[in-house]
Write a structure and sequence with these properties.
Layout lengths: L1 H10 L7 E4 L5 H12 L4 E4 L5 H9 L9 E3 L5 E3 L3 H7 L10 E7 L3 H12 L4 E5 L25 H14 L3 E4 L2 E7 L2 E6 L4 E9 L3 E3 L16 E3 L2 H4 L7 E5 L3 H10 L5 E6 L9 H8 L4 E5 L2 E7 L3 E7 L5 E8 L2 E4 L3 E3 L10
Helix pairs in contact: 5-6, 8-9
């Protein structure tokens, strides 16, 4: 019964009375706020003061002359102006401080591997804390649809998979901490973990499950400048609704890119998937077939991004072939560019403890 109620609550959408995020659609700071809320499955409404009368009305009610944006308004009317991720997480009631100074097991990273380790460790009676800097689920948690996960024949979203895993871990007494691990040192027989706020946690055993960081394309002209202003790494869940009736381009040739294309097809006028190589080299067959069945999705194999254009936000993309030769078309108008191009290990904080 508890599982059924949890499923119902996750999908229930009453008239909106929750958190409002007021800020420019093209603001990287606003994007980070929305991404935190979306990935933690916290309902919110995004309002852009440039296009929303409701946003301007709410800003006029705030008790300051010109509140810095983004402004997060809570249901009780309390404003939080231009908060950091840590400030917003704490205000949301997310657990940011450890309850104890010592645990049998510390797990850094709450992706599928970290969540599974937490369930197994706590089920054996180990005092376990799971530390995640963003949201449970890791990069898998951003997937709009996972259809090849054992035990879920109808498929489910990455966020739903993460929610179920966190619920399971909680039933075994796992403490989930919304923090970032920045260092670790040995003090035999213990390990001392340092968090971003300077706090330290001691443990018998540390499991490193911090996963990976998105690989970037900052070397491409315009890419770094427009990051968060029409150019995004991942972020399909938090940004898709902003692209209703617009043209979206997705870079990548693996499952994450294909899943994003499927998700955006429910919103965008046209979704174009740019892949350097044939999709068959990196994408599951079932997903290739699903993409081919949707008329608003087109796949351009052998296409790479040469340059991105725009002032305050992305307006166009220049294309080429992977070897630099011209691609036809050479330049296209674009409202959004979403990149799913692989990742690199996020283990720099471990230092020399791991060879």
């Amino acid at each position: 019964l508890d599982d059924l109620l949890d499923d119902w609550q996750a999908g229930y959408q009453p008239p909106f009375e929750g958190i409002r995020v007021i800020g420019s659609r093209w603001s990287p700071h606003t994007h980070r706020m929305k991404d935190l809320l979306a990935r933690n499955q916290i309902p919110y409404q995004s309002l852009d003061p440039e296009s929303s009368d409701e946003a301007r009305r709410l800003l006029a009610l705030v008790d300051t002359v010109t509140p810095p944006l983004p402004l997060v308004l809570f249901p009780d009317g309390t404003p939080l102006a231009a908060p950091s991720i840590a400030q917003l997480a704490e205000r949301l009631g997310l657990h940011t401080r450890a309850e104890k100074p010592f645990y049998d097991l510390v797990i850094a990273g709450a992706g599928p591997a970290g969540l599974a380790a937490a369930v197994y460790g706590a089920s054996e009676g180990l005092g376990t804390v799971l530390i995640e800097r963003e949201a449970p689920g890791g990069q898998a948690g951003t997937s709009s649809r996972i259809e090849n996960y054992l035990g879920f024949p109808q498929g489910l979203s990455g966020a739903e998979l993460a929610r179920r895993a966190v619920t399971q871990a909680g039933r075994f007494g796992v403490e989930v901490l919304r923090q970032e691990v920045v260092g670790v040192r040995r003090a035999d027989p213990y390990r001392i973990v340092t968090l971003a706020d300077g706090a330290e946690i001691a443990c018998h055993a540390l499991i490193v499950a911090t996963g990976v960081s998105y690989r970037t394309l900052d070397e491409i002209p315009g890419m770094a400048r427009l990051n968060g202003c029409g150019v995004y790494y991942g972020a399909a869940l938090s940004e898709a609704a902003n692209y209703r009736g617009q043209d979206v381009y997705i870079v990548g040739g693996a499952n994450s890119a294909g899943q994003a294309a499927m998700y955006f097809a429910s919103y965008a006028r046209r979704v174009t998937l740019l892949a350097r190589s044939p999709l068959s080299k990196g994408m599951s067959r079932y997903l290739i077939d699903q993409l081919a069945a949707i008329p608003t999705i087109r796949v351009w194999e052998g296409a790479s991004v040469r340059e991105v254009h725009g002032g305050d936000n992305l307006t166009a993309i220049s294309l080429c072939r992977p070897d630099g030769e011209p691609y036809d078309p050479g330049r296209v108008e674009a409202s959004g560019l979403f990149l799913f191009i692989g990742a690199t290990p996020r283990t720099g904080w471990v230092g020399e403890l791991i060879e």
